[in-house]
Design goal:
Helix 5 (212-242) runs antiparallel to helix 6 (250-267) and helix 5 (212-242) packs parallel to helix 7. The protein has helices at residues 21-33, 51-60, 116-119, 195-207, 212-242, 250-267, 275-285; strands at 79-82, 89-90, 96-97, 111-114, 122-124, 133-135, 178-180, 187-189. It has 290 residues and is mainly alpha-helical. Strands 1-4 form a two-stranded antiparallel sheet. It has two domains: 6-210, no CATH class; 214-285, no CATH class. The relative contact order is 0.12. The two termini are 24 Å apart.
Length: 290
């Protein structure tokens, strides 16, 4: 998982048009749920799911899942993901709370782009697990106990932000929270203990970042990157020798170094799959970066 700067994305015009279907629907939801006796009512949220919003999200996240970093735009439709769930909330103790963050169903800052495996509840094979387990975000949004989720648009979310257990890749820098095993491409918290460790582990568990197929896909990229790193470091060692030995073709070595460095830098770009892991590998193993 990596950080995506939402301020760089193109905010769809429907959010600022007071006459748009999106804002009309938002006001309907607020009018319904501002009355507590309506909390158990089910509201049909539709207007957020439009082509303008989805296209903007796909561009912002480069067609990747915001959580697992798998490329999805070319193989599946992907989901417009509500970071804070709109219809209901499953809290830390698996209690169901209604009505959910209804007013944020139409908030640009609450919308992400995610794959079905991260976003929906589904039975998955997990790394180091003998049985299939149900993982995926669904309506889960746990806070550190004993803090409770806010269900009132008039109060807002500021008071609960400090107790949020899921990492938002448009707010936190996920690269500070996770580290990857450099042999198996497994993921685990960077912090050994404390609240940030709890955030990281909760995010791994709920987003299902140890799904077996996902780990296998990360491992393929890890192997490719290590192959390039080994080539690059070998050329860098040869270049040091070439400074003393005039018979070695220094220009050819520098050309090869530039080519491999360009390939590695490309793999670390935010639009590439598993860029968070790739950046860790480059930081730990490149002797000299271009």
């Amino acid at each position: 998982m990596i950080f995506f700067d939402k301020t760089k994305g193109i905010r769809p015009t429907c959010f600022d048009d007071i006459h748009s279907d999106l804002n009309k629907e938002k006001q309907e939801a607020i009018n319904l749920f501002k009355i507590k006796k309506n909390y158990l009512e089910k509201y049909k949220y539709k207007a957020y799911n439009n082509d303008e919003i989805k296209t903007a999200l796909i561009k912002l996240f480069h067609g990747k899942c915001c959580y697992c970093e798998s490329r999805i735009a070319g193989t599946q439709p992907g989901d417009i993901e509500h970071f804070r769930p709109k219809g209901k909330i499953i809290d830390f103790d698996s209690n169901e709370l209604r009505p959910g963050y209804y007013w944020l169903a139409y908030d640009w800052d609450n919308l992400l782009y995610a794959c079905r495996s991260c976003n929906s509840l589904c039975g998955q094979e997990l790394e180091d697990e003998d049985e299939v387990k149900v993982v995926g975000k669904g309506n889960k949004f746990p806070l550190v106990k004993p803090y409770r989720n806010i269900l009132d648009h008039k109060i807002g979310i500021n008071n609960e932000e400090a107790f949020r257990l899921l990492i938002n890749p448009c707010i936190e820098d996920p690269e500070k929270f996770f580290q990857y095993d450099e042999q198996y491409a497994s993921i685990k918290p960077s912090f050994k203990s404390g609240f940030k460790s709890q955030q990281a582990q909760t995010s791994i568990d709920i987003y299902g970042l140890t799904r077996l197929q996902l780990v296998i896909d990360r491992k393929r990229v890890l192997d490719d990157v290590f192959f390039l790193i080994e080539q690059l470091n070998s050329y860098l060692d040869d270049l040091k020798t070439a400074q003393k030995n005039k018979t070695i073709d220094k220009v050819k070595l520098e050309t090869n170094i530039d080519k491999i460095t360009d390939k590695l830098e490309e793999k670390a770009k935010e639009g590439e799959p598993y860029a968070g892991m790739v950046r860790q590998l480059l930081k730990n193993h490149i002797k000299t970066v271009k």
